[in-house]
């Protein structure tokens, strides 16, 4: 048996023939690979175990291991050299100043608007935004009247209303807000005319009115104050941070909003005088709160497309000092003026994940 194995031992020579010298690199690699495979197959047939084969091939494996260590050492050395160079450049004051100057120059020239408008810098392919289903519509199937609550806890608001997509009115949220006394038609006209921030704000924000000849709240309020307009209705948003901040000092975040909700940056007004047309308004947030300041505000809550065949419209009359909160995933809001006196409503939104 030993003689047979010896006779079948593959012919492998360290001498290089002229024909082998003329082979291309790919052919040389294939030749070496073929000889190694022959040796391996011979050892397996001869009854050698895997550890024994590895021990016999140790000289060849040692060369491969050495090459791997050398490659790793070269990479580590290059990385250390690059790191040392970067540290030196940042600690060497003249070079650091040059880097800062050119860095600021590039930052000013770079167009950041596209990144600014992204909700996420890196999209998560496994994240799927919750979509309303017909099963969710069971929450509003028998919903007919918006309940009024006072001294309500944040946990109850979250569980019974926000997460259940049920609108609610809180009657004591504005008790200590200066807005309840201040926000009338005269105050709005004056502050938009005299405040340096508001005077030129709103050109890029949402503005809707029954008088299309006016493009900004400043123009509209000025015309109403001068008596040019006797009847109007308008909705506008203070989407610019500084403009929204002017009004924010007159109110606070509603006390009943849970900690997991984050207030939106802007705020908005709905103002009407003697107008009877219905105005539909939309907000890009998880829920919207509407604070009634002057007179009675009438709102129509409409179920969205998924639920409109299951749930009914709900009419809400909001009295001064009351705050209506509406989850936007299930409901859309329309405003219907009542009476001939100026009606003022303002509000903002909240978001959550």
UniProtKB/TrEMBL annotation:
The chain crosses the membrane at residues 72-92. The keyword Transmembrane helix applies. Keywords: Membrane, Transmembrane, Transmembrane helix. It comes from the Eukaryota. The keyword Acetylation does not apply. SUPFAM superfamilies: Clavaminate synthase-like (SSF51197). InterPro entries: BRAP (IPR038757). This is Cupin-like domain-containing protein. The lineage of its organism: Eukaryota, Metazoa, Cnidaria, Anthozoa, Hexacorallia.
């Amino acid at each position: 048996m030993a003689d047979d194995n010896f006779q079948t031992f593959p012919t492998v020579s360290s001498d290089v023939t002229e024909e082998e010298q003329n082979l291309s690199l790919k052919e040389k690699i294939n030749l070496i690979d073929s000889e190694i495979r022959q040796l391996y197959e011979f050892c397996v047939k001869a009854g050698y175990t895997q550890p024994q084969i590895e021990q016999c091939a140790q000289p060849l494996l040692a060369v491969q291991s050495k090459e791997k260590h050398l490659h790793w050492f070269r990479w580590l050395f290059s990385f250390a050299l690059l790191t040392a160079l970067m540290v030196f450049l940042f600690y060497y004051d003249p070079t650091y100043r040059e880097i800062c100057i050119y860095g600021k120059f590039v930052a000013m020239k770079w167009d950041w608007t596209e990144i600014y408008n992204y909700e996420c810098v890196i999209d998560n392919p496994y994240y799927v935004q919750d979509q309303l289903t017909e099963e969710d519509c069971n929450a509003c199937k028998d919903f007919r009247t918006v309940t009024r609550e006072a001294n309500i806890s944040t946990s109850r608001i979250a569980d019974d209303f926000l997460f259940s997509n049920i609108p609610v009115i809180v009657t004591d949220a504005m008790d200590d807000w200066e807005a309840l006394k201040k926000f009338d038609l005269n105050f709005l006209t004056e502050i938009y005319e005299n405040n340096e921030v508001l005077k030129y704000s709103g050109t890029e924000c949402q503005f809707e009115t029954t008088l299309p000849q006016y493009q900004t709240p400043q123009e509209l309020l000025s015309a109403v104050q001068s008596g040019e307009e006797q009847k109007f209705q308008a909705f506008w948003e203070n989407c610019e941070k500084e403009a929204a901040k002017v009004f924010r000092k007159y109110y606070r975040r509603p006390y009943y909003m849970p900690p997991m909700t984050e207030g939106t940056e802007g705020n908005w007004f709905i103002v009407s005088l003697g107008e009877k047309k219905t105005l539909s308004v939309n907000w890009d947030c998880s829920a919207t709160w509407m604070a009634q300041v002057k007179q009675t505000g009438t709102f129509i809550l409409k179920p969205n497309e998924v639920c409109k065949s299951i749930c009914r419209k709900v009419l809400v009359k909001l009295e001064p000092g009351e705050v209506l909160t509406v989850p936007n995933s299930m409901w859309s809001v329309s405003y219907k003026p009542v009476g001939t006196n100026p009606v003022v409503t303002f509000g903002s939104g909240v978001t959550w994940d």
